[in-house]
Amino acid sequence: MIDELTKGPIQAVAKKSMASGKRVNRKNHSKFIQALSLIVFLILWQFFSAINAHFIWFNPQFFPSPMIVLHTTWDYLLDGTLIQAIGASVIRVLLGFAFGSLVGVLLGIMMSQSRLSNDLISPVLNMLGPIPVFAFLPIFMIWFGISELSKVMLIAYATFLPVLTYTMDGIKNVNPTWIRSAMTLGATRYQIFTRVILRAALPNVFVGMRISLALAFGALIVAEMMGSSEGLGFIIVNARNWFKLDDMFMSCMLIGLLYTLFNYILLFLESVLFRWKKDGIQSAVER
Amino acid sequence: MPFVNVRNLFKSYGDAGKYVLNDVSFEINENEFVCVLGHSGCGKSTLLNLLAGFIKPDKGEISVNGQFVSKPSSQRGVVFQDHGLFPWYNILDNVAFGPKALKNKDAYRISKRLIKMVDLEGYEKVFPSSLSGGMAQRVGIARALATNPQLLLMDEPLGALDAMTREKMRIEILRIWKETKKTILFITHSIAEAVYLADRVIVLKEGSVCLDEKIEIERPRSVHAPQFMDYTKKFEKVLFEHDELVLD
Which CDD domains match (chain A) (predicted)? Predict the structure, then answer.
């Protein structure tokens, strides 16, 4: 009988749990280093702003310390403005990102399945792709008004192109042996598409979504800076008029935090959906 | 009427006048274990792809159990060299893929029985990435058997395995063949493997059948038996000499 079988699944499970124990330790260690990096960053920031406040190399108001930014955040929190601003930004980015991703995936599927639609759409996308999303904002504002729609559409537009490209790429690069396997197992064309091609392309879709997320946040802030009366982008542009650098720093920090949170949610979803994946340097070498 | 009937098969890949398969004809009886032996590039994988229905011949025809082959079918199970398991499904779902696609209500019961047959009970919830090469290949065999095909096509299934695992897998494959009583066409470039496994060996050379030989050794076979050596030498002579030795 085969060696690995004589040992039995129990030993395999025991080995696995030891390996996963090691992995948990490494993960905790990694998280500690990451937290430490943020703490060091905040300490250095506090330190330089304190030195600047002492020697006055330039106006200390232009370089507020983290403590001042925290204080400002607290004030904003107390008067309710902050929750309102974060809420507005989150809703915009969620709607735009979800809509853009949906359109990107659907169009990617369509273009990868039909040569005609690919030939019709890809030249237009190749032309529009290199134009910075922000150039379209005034056009979107004229088309969709200064309402929420123009902002959500700009975010959706920023999102959809990378998602579309990565979806198409994922579908095109499906291992042909998987498709052949499914054919010999009696799967219909629809089953092959839904149970093999889409499943195989899904990790690529998520890569596209993570790339899009940064672009979506960029579009959100620009849209809020140009035509909005609330949101984190609006706080920045409004603070500029009053030289309120601490407001700007607060808004920037919150945008960074929100992006990190969204990125973590995507990474978490990936880790749940793609438990089966075991690639990359982590699985190449055990350290 | 033979179970598998391959008649005057020609196949080229665009090169004008150059055939990968050049007038290939042979028959396989029901429950027979046939090995197709040949060097790399001799056309043996092309032959398997034609039998599976993945590609179409330029000329000639193939029938299995009286039905002409025109496209892939669950009646012809394929075991691939790189196993081709779906990495996003666990072992149970991989094996159950075929029966589920065919709307078989007993999909999981059948799959569990086959997983037990290939000695992987307890690994149902494991993903393919956690399996060794030999284990993955046995899942591949179980998966191919799950739709109860009439013919099992095996494309160098042991090609990517180490020598030790290969030997063990040969015994496993013979056991599975005896248990399931399937007709098997097994592609290999290993002479010893062909002599060890097959009822009959078809030697392909430069796209043509140059030898079709019954292996008249009782099972279990020993690689050290004089008869085994005789067959090995015979196939070596055909494969490594320039003179064509056609006994058919």
Answer: TM_PBP2
Residue B144 lies in a domain: yes
Judging contacts by C-beta atoms under 8 Å, the chain A residues touching residue B52 are 180, 184
Residue B163 forms part of a structural domain: yes
Shared-domain flag, residues A159 and A250: yes
CB-CB neighbors (< 8 A) of A177 in chain B: 80, 82, 84
Mean pLDDT by groups of 10 residues along chain A of 287 residues = 44 57 78 91 92 88 91 93 95 97 96 91 90 91 89 95 94 95 96 95 95 95 89 92 91 95 95 81 57
pLDDT at residue B162, rounded to an integer: 86
Q: Which helix (H) or strand (E) holds A226?
A: helix A198-226
Asked whether the beta carbons of residue A185 and residue B73 sit closer than 8 angstroms, the reply is: no
Contact B238, B70 (CB under 8 A): no
What residue type is B179 in one-letter code?
Answer: E
Indicate the angle between helix axes B91-101 and B107-117, nearest 10 degrees.
Answer: 130
- Kindly identify which residue of chain A lies nearest to residue B75, measuring between CA atoms: A184
ipTM score = 0.92
DSSP code string of A235-283: HHHHHHHTT-HHHHHHHHHHHHHHHHHHHHHHHHHHHHHTTT---SHHH
Please list every residue in chain A whose beta carbon sits closer than 8 Å to the beta carbon of residue B175: none
A185 neighbourhood in chain B, CB within 8 Å: 74, 77, 97-98, 101, 143-144, 146-147
Domain shared by A148 and A27, yes or no? no
Neighboring chain B residues of A19 at a CB cutoff of 8 Å: none
Domain tally, chain B: 1
Interface list for chain A against chain B, based on CB atoms closer than 8 Å: 1-5, 8-9, 16, 175, 177-178, 180-188, 191, 195-196, 199-200, 202, 274-278
| pLDDT, position A186 | 95
B86 touches chain A (CB under 8 A): yes
Give the number of domains in chain A.
Answer: 2
Does residue B244 sit within a domain? Answer: no
Closest residue on chain B to A10 (Cα): B122
Supply the range of the domain harboring residue B163: 83-194
A59 with A21, same domain: the answer is: yes
The domain boundary residue, chosen from A63, A79, A104: A63
Q: Does A184 contact B144 at a Cβ distance shorter than 8 Å?
A: yes
Q: Hey, is the C-beta of B13 within 8 angstroms of any chain A C-beta?
A: no
pLDDT per residue rounded down to tens, chain B (248 residues): 899 999 999 999 876 668 899 999 999 999 999 999 999 889 999 999 999 999 999 999 999 999 999 999 999 999 999 999 999 999 999 999 999 999 999 999 999 999 999 889 999 999 999 999 899 999 999 999 999 999 999 999 998 888 888 888 899 999 999 999 999 999 999 999 999 999 999 999 989 999 999 999 999 899 899 999 999 999 999 998 765 544 44
